[in-house]
Protein 1
Amino acid sequence: MKLVIIDYGSGNIKSVKFALERIGVNAVLTNDLVTIENADKVVFPGVGEASSAMVELKKNGLDKLISTLKQPVLGICLGMQLMCEYTEEGDTCCMGIFPIKVKKFNTELKVPQVGWNNISKLKTDLFNQVNENEYAYFVHSFYAPWSEYSIAQTTYDKEFSAALHKANFYACQFHPEKSSHAGQQILKNFVNL
Amino acid sequence: MLTKRIIPCLDIKNARTVKGINFKNLIDAGDPVELAKYYSKNGADELVFLDITATKENRKALAGLVEKIAKNVNIPFTVGGGISSAGDVSILLQSGADKVSVNSSAVKNPELINRLANKFGSQCIVVAIDARQINDNWKVHLVGGKVPTEIDLFEWAAEVEKRGAGEILFTSMNHDGTKNGFANEALARISKLVNIPVIASGGAGNMQHFADVFKIGKSDAALAASVFHFNEISIAELKQFLNNQDINMRV
């Protein structure tokens, strides 16, 4: 199986690669369109700021490619937000895979949300053998509101989407690569989709 | 619900763990990778590694160590000690660190915080602040708390947030090593002042101290070294204890 991690200069993608190695998958880091298109599975990670990330993606046409992929795709954190149609971060138009507008937390609570929070209302095979209310590790200031595409829910000030699904596209707001055993199981599930 | 975090801190010298660690031969306590694995298995929510030598020659060894830790640990970890440029940060993040912490170099050159936050994102920039209470005033200290400055702790905390810090790691030099509890009053003040997470450090001696630092000190996370390294407090028992006091923990 060929699994690629899209490398567009966004933050720490080594930890995603290492997490996959721990479950026996040797992933390739690449920004090459042909390699990505021909992979069996694609992971689309991301940390950092949305508008500059979109600029990077547009440079070599990754933004167009990702939304046309047919194999299972897993967006992580900022990757998930960029798969939505819009984010308030930098007033940025994104890829529009999920018809969702990403919002900034507007709360008395601290922003970003940093740390471990529960995920519940788990749906799809991505969460096979993952318990309801399991903990996952989050670091984010923006969130996707609850919608028909939500396959996991977390509460911080209000309920929001901890994960999304549409056709071959999966995405999670939390970092499975840093979410201990539950995160490892989720990555395994993605590999086995 | 978002949980409070428990963070063991490991001092690193020449890519080995130092400072009295006693695991009664359970593991090679000098091996940071083994310790990191042990802590991540036993309930730690995050780890902090502080390179206490932090010389240029040791940078390469540190990057190699960070990569080994990243390969073996499935929880977030922060690396600090002697970081003074975007180049330093870049090497550590590329080696697999999730966050870096900057301290003295940020005090000497506050602009560094802006630069790092813009380049790498606030989420991976922890600003560590060492301060000591002298009479009624909390003053920021440099070089592991040895060198006093005239900078007020609370003004500095507000400034680092404004410049783009993602979290503040505050160590009270008055409390560090005393095992008499954390600096809850100052912590609560910082926590009220800034809207980013505050990690408390210095003074952990028993489980009630952790309950107090969350309830009274309003901290988001608590960091400690020797109580964990000497097995005086087990993280699993500590988390159960805190959970029983209605402090939300990942157990």
Protein 2
Amino acid sequence: MGDHHGAVPAGALDVAGAGWAAVELGALAVVLLVWALHGAGRRWVRGRAPWPAARTALFAGGLLCVAAALVGPLARAAHGSFTAHMGAHLLLGMLGPLLLALGAPVTLALRALPVRRARALTRLLRTPPVRVLAHPAVAALLAGGGAWVLYTTALFPAMHASPWVHAAVHAHVLASGYLLAASLVGVDPDPHRAPVAVRAGVLVVYVAAHALLAKHLYAVPPPGVDARDAEVGAQLMAHGGDVVDLALAVLVALGWYRATAPRGRAARRRRTVAGRVPTCPTAAPLRASTPPRAAGPGARPT
Amino acid sequence: MTTAHDAGAPPARRSRRDGPADPGRRTVLAGVLLGAGAAASLVDLLVFHLALQWHHFYDRSTPAVSITSDALLHAAAWTASVWGVFLLLDVRRRGPVPWRRWTGAVLAGVGGFQLFDGVVDHKLLRLHQVRYDVTALWVYDAAWIGSAVLVLLAGLVVLRRTRPARTPGRRAG
């Protein structure tokens, strides 16, 4: 399959090889396909209102982050420079997934798919494996633990030696980052969303693990990375990660703030804009777009 | 289906939160969280790391236990600051905010954290020092811990003087 057989030292890479080109093209194709599906979903969406432009913008921003990390100059620079690699990783694993999750892709799918398909999707999302994966603690372990494994084992040089390992690692980074963002602050319907205290606690531990890994990399660079490059990359990881983590903390608290709004005039005013569905506490103001029928039995409020 | 309700905001919990929700204690909690969180994150970052450059990102001599606790502390600090702000907003939307009491709580939070940082982080865990390359480190430590105690005491005095009138039995929870 690949055109690399032995271990290639990082920095002396044959980035122009056929395998690498295939991975880059594949990533581009996936991004374009997702964007095309999103456009189709926006056209087919049911309900009184069109799909909110703000959500489209968030989702598009997320896709742009993913694309910038996988295709083009930053993605190519990431083969030789740890700092560029870390910049790409922040886009692919943290900022991109957060924006994608805030774009509410599952809600769009539920509104755009035929009702029977939408119900099947809801059933799928309620199956035990999905519930386990979508728990913030599991998602944080996959995302944070994955990063620890990547940078402290031979996986890092292996990733730069084989385009296919490279593709698998990046798929994991994106998927686990999405699961984490969606489980913490997602706006899609999530009937089993963890309580706010669990989400805030998981976020503290995840942020700590992230910062700790950054300090570790500052002192102990991954194999094949020179010390100065590792220092700059580690600080980018720490401070860039802090910015995204702060956004996550604000969004968790904001979700609590909206979900616990006191009853009264203000709350009544809000309720006329968006119905209350206790299964989706963080999405209070945008909830009107969730189709009540497609959510299936059991998701209905009291 | 009962499982649909045990996450997020179940109706039972919501009705309890919709009550008066002890604004006094929530104000103090908001102030302490914001004070301690801001002291741990903003003061340390802006003043000592960036402006004065007395502290460093990582001085490489730190034992693993210490940097682990430091990482947890900083993560908790950001979270505490954020929740301090949102709890204050929550008090505000439910009624008038007792601002003096909140100020006292902020001072107590700042002083309490600086004291903890000066004693536990700098001296016991030896995470990092206030300043490097100085002979009289104890002067810096004394200034740090002394100012922390003063701020903490000021906060506690304000909290004591702004204590609401006692209503026995109502705050049993």
